[in-house]
TrEMBL record, chain B:
Transmembrane segments: 71-88, 100-121, 127-154, 161-183, 195-214
Source organism: Sciurus carolinensis (Eastern gray squirrel)
Cell compartment(s), UniProt: Golgi apparatus membrane; Membrane
Biological processes annotated in GO: endoplasmic reticulum to Golgi vesicle-mediated transport
Protein name (database record): Protein YIPF
Family statement: Belongs to the YIP1 family.
Family matches, as Pfam families: Yip1
Annotated Gene Ontology cellular component terms: Golgi membrane; trans-Golgi network
Membrane topology summary: Multi-pass membrane protein
InterPro entries for the chain: Yip1/4-like (IPR045231), Yip1_dom (IPR006977)
Length: 314, 216
């Protein structure tokens, strides 16, 4: 019966359909009972949508922001980009938790993103990771110097630039390539369409979150513990990626699926290992000379990376 | 005849002059500030900057930073900080402290990014107001830099480091408290943490640069 349906929880789009139907019902049968229920339907529907939209609507935006019927604002308007930052604190925290604990049945995109990807998470997780890498790399050097006073300490600010460029390129170019590849193979799949570009960026961005505490834990100067933490973080992160990509890739040929998933995992492993080796390599002791003797050493000894292996194991 | 007898017809033209009282002397038309002496002009701006410094040092709920924003203060602070943080040009090695340009870029692009983030999340603060607040709240960290520079003139050692660490931490917390006092109200309540976290990251990076500064 339309009245019983009207009291159930509906998504916003269905509520407007019911609202279109109830005026007809109101005129034919007990109108006094039905019109208040018709209002209740609307109230439940509007209460059920995210309260966030109402707050964003209060901004002086150029285009209408009713969720179910707005035309997509053009990419030159500010409100277009505002739609990518339409998240609350609790939603961001929930997505981070979802990326930390991947489970085989739960698809990150469907379960946590709920088809509303955001750009806040990927952008600030990448920024945090880049700065944390540079800072802890620097701290490792300080701690190495405290133990072994012959190591020369310097702030090494260029590592911030390197970290930033690496992380941002990885987190934005690799999803671009993946998205392009999945769209190219779209014809082979029937059931599930490819993820949008933003969803792919979200998957990668949130999967990098686990590396932030791992990088901080890499301060502990025990090598096997560092490799253990690294392997753990890589396993969790890559598992999240694989579980999310599996439903999309499952319908493709086995060869393509295997190659794609292994490429994703290998790239992720390369990133983790590259960060570990580049940022956490204390400088060799030959790097240090008291300033009076600086002219005695030829300059290219200062720059050889092979000497660093001897320091890495100590 | 009382007032009730008066009837106003439609075609009586109304003439007159309306004078709007000028609210603050700063908003006068250009012709009256063009003739003043240079000293007056500079002192006026310096006093405005100084007043905002006081508001940052003793953060209260006031609108001065937001209402009369200016970017002179942030520029002075950023240039001072970058000049003090840059490494000397004598050593051309790759590893060392930041260059002047790197500090400058981090401060200004960091502030612009945080402002854009705050606006995209739905805050109702204007672009330049937010830049102004973020720039002025670097003042405690600039003071920390000066103190660290003085402390580094003494002999190096763990006590030296502890003193610097303590000063930098105190000033870092002061910066964050000052900036959130001004910025937090402009965000919807369920997104405050999302808007404040980048500010935390920004001042953390600047504090890190100050703490790891070693004179060459």
């Amino acid at each position: 019966m339309a009245a019983a349906d009207g009291l159930a929880f509906h998504e916003f789009e269905e509520a407007t359909n019911l609202l279109a139907e109830t005026p007809d019902a109101a005129t034919t049968s007990k109108s006094d009972q039905l019109t208040p229920q018709g209002h209740v339907v609307v109230a439940v529907g509007s209460g059920g949508s995210y309260g966030v939209e109402e707050e964003v609507e209060e901004e002086g935006d150029k285009t209408a922001l009713l969720q179910e019927e707005k035309p997509q604002p053009g990419f030159w308007t500010f409100s277009y980009y505002q739609s990518f930052f339409d998240v609350d604190t609790s939603q961001v925290l929930d997505r981070i938790k979802g990326s930390l604990l991947p489970r085989p049945g739960y698809n990150f995109v469907r379960h946590h993103l709920r088809n509303r990807p955001d750009l806040y998470g990927p952008f600030w997780i990448c920024a945090t990771l880049a700065f944390v890498l540079a800072v802890t790399g620097n701290l490792t050097l300080v701690l190495a110097q405290r133990r072994d006073p012959s190591v020369h300490y310097s702030p090494q600010f260029h590592k911030v630039t390197v970290a930033g460029i690496t992380i941002y390129c990885y987190a934005w170019l690799v999803p671009l390539a993946l998205w392009g590849f999945l769209r190219w193979r779209k014809g082979v799949r029937e059931r599930m369409g490819p993820y949008t570009f933003l969803e792919t960026v979200c998957i990668y961005g949130y999967s990098l979150f686990i590396f932030i505490p791992t990088v901080v834990l890499w301060l502990i100067p025990v090598p096997w513990l560092q490799w253990l933490f690294g392997a753990l973080a890589l396993a969790l992160s890559a598992a999240g990626l694989v579980f999310t990509l599996w439903p999309v890739v499952r319908e493709d040929t086995r060869l393509v699926a295997a190659v794609l998933l292994s490429a994703v995992v290998v790239l992720h492993a390369l990133l983790a290992m590259g960060c570990k080796l580049y940022f956490f390599q204390p400088l060799p002791p030959e790097h240090v000379v008291p300033p009076s003797k600086a002219t005695a050493l030829p300059p290219n000894i200062l720059l050889t990376p092979t000497m660093s292996r001897s320091m890495a194991t100590s | 005849a009382g007032l009730s007898d008066i009837s106003i017809s439609q075609d009586i033209p109304i003439e007159g002059e309306i004078t709007i009282p000028v609210r603050s002397r700063i908003r006068e038309s250009d012709s009256s500030t063009l003739n003043e002496s240079v000293r007056n002009t500079i002192m006026r701006d310096l006093k405005a900057v100084g007043k905002k410094f006081m508001h940052v040092l003793y953060p209260r709920k006031s609108n001065t930073l937001l209402r009369d924003w200016d970017l002179w203060g942030p520029l002075i602070l950023c240039v001072t900080l970058a000049l003090m943080l840059q490494r000397g040009s004598v050593d051309g090695e790759k590893d060392g402290g930041p260059q002047f340009a790197e500090v400058f870029v981090i401060v200004w692009f960091g502030a612009v990014t945080i402002t854009l983030n705050s606006k995209l999340l739905g805050g109702n603060i204007s672009f330049f107001q937010s830049l102004c607040v973020l720039g002025y709240c670097i003042l405690p960290l600039t003071v920390a830099m000066l103190v660290c520079r003085l402390v580094l003139l003494a002999e190096p050692g763990p006590v030296n480091f502890m003193v610097r660490l303590f000063v930098v931490i105190v000033m870092f917390v002061w910066s964050i408290v000052a900036s959130t006092a001004f910025l937090a109200d402009s965000q919807p309540p369920n997104r405050k943490a999302l808007a404040v976290y980048p500010v935390f990251l920004f001042y953390f990076v600047i504090s890190w640069m100050i703490l790891t500064f070693t004179p060459q």
